[in-house]
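Following the same procedure, sequence and fold were stored together, as reproduced here.

>
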Amino acid sequence: MTRWENFRWGAIGVLGRRLLGVWLGSCRVKTLGLERYEQARRDGRPVIILIWHGRLLVAPYFFRKRGIAALVSPSRDGEFIARIVGGWGFRVIRGSSSHPIIRAWAKMKEDLGSGGELIIIPDGPRGPDRKLKSGALKLARDTGALLVPFSFSASRKRFLRSWDRFLLVGPFSRIAAVCGKPVAISPDAGDDALEKLREDIELALTALDAEADACFEPGGSAPRG
């Protein structure tokens, strides 16, 4: 990357982060099931946070300033995301959930091996939508990390006509941050066991989207916070 390109991306990142901060800062964020994640961190367990690409918008703001590592695609879109989250205290690792670069894989194992936490978008960067790739499961098996699914929704929202039906949150919305049940993977899990777990987690993560959306429907579970 040339000096000019680095400057340009830096400026884009600062502007994007400020706009996103003002936008999401106007919203009220409430949580459901967050104690599951918090308990895992109190216990000192390494954690891999899983969020579908289509529900990604709120995540950098919600998890900001926690020193969490984030696996970000080396694509052009990934560069934009990296500049935003890097300014919010994330430790950016460039790679892909489908084809992680060897150096990125080693860095993720190192971070999790020391009790850290990592965000992975398991259907990114280009889909298919809500099809969980196996990289996160293999990483959890090799490091002992818990897989913790998350989803976000809002009282005022719009879904784009993109491959991932990307969720846009309206300003001054009520936002639900919903945490699912953590999943531990045995270090002895073979390919068949991993595939069964992959299918189960894929279904659970998709169901979590519906649970988050239901928070704003009549009779839905009210988030806390």
